[in-house]
Amino acid sequence: xxxxxxxVEGLAKTYPGAREPVFDGVxxxxxxxxxxxxxxxxGCGKTTILNVLAGLESASAGxxxxxxxxxxGPSLERGVVFxxxxxxxxxxxxxxxxxxxxxxxxxxxxxxxxxxxxxxVDLVGLGAAIDKKPSALSGGMKQRVGIARAFAIQPRxxxxxxxxxxxxxxxxxxxxxxxxxxxxxxxxxxxxxxxDVDEAxxxxxxxxxxxxxxxxxxxEIVRNTMPRTRTRAxxxxxxxxxxxxxxLVDFLVARSSELSHGRAxxxxxxxxxxxxxxxxxxxxxxxxxPVVPLRRVA
Length: 298
Ligand SMILES: Nc1ncnc2c1ncn2[C@@H]1O[C@H](COP(=O)(O)OP(=O)(O)OP(=O)(O)O)[C@@H](O)[C@H]1O
Ligand SMILES: [Mg+2]
Prior knowledge:
This protein is of the alpha/beta class. Helix content is 32%, strand content 20%. Strand 10, helix 7 and strand 11 form a beta-alpha-beta unit. The site of adenosine-5'-triphosphate has 11 residues, from helix 1.
């Protein structure tokens, strides 16, 4: 039985006045409880895709279904962390998050809302800044408010647009660990844009590789074959890590541009670069092939 939760079919976007689509023929699906990252060069259309998934922007062609229903507008079932933090500047941290919480649970008492908000503010380490306005916060702190706000409404799907981009390495690590913990606990379904290949390998079950525009596509899907118990501290001890990392970097350096202008396949193949092929049997002359082909599935 398919557990497809989010399904994207033939998605395309041409901005008014543009001659060619930014992307077209974008096809992929996300299963319930799955963590999917998307990687691709700046301008290939990642944020546009995320906005269409959120129901904030319309596509020029194609469809998005969540739980078999077509996405036709924004919903509190999908929590978004924007690339810019998108906070209301006249409201404190507390009120920014409380506003979203009250929209989701209009019947809650003030005490219930307060307690819930406090929990998520503590989660991102902003307890001391809860009554400050966004203008009094650093970029990384604002981003953390956005993260707390998205988590606080406990959406069925989290859509994250480079949510850790403005954070220092230490805070970033702490929040990545926290995100992994929450996802393991709640089976949260996540679609996340990142430029950081290590972050993608740590967090994602599958990594969507997007070719360059115009006519960008999801060109290939990398299955993360490392155990889900991976942590930041142990990741680099697993030989799979280097194979997956090299594969992602090779795509970004060379293949993403070769596959622009609609040269990527419409149905992206799934690959498992982490798994090495078994050592070839030595031939009678003692020569084995040193070239390890990628294992392709689907
Ligand atoms: N409102 C708009 N009007 C016209 N063109 C737009 C608009 N928004 C985005 N674009 C163009 O569409 C393309 C994709 O933009 P998008 O923001 O989705 O890229 P991205 O992959 O998220 O890039 P980055 O990694 O830099 O965030 C870009 O070439 C951009 O200039
Ligand atoms: Mg973007």
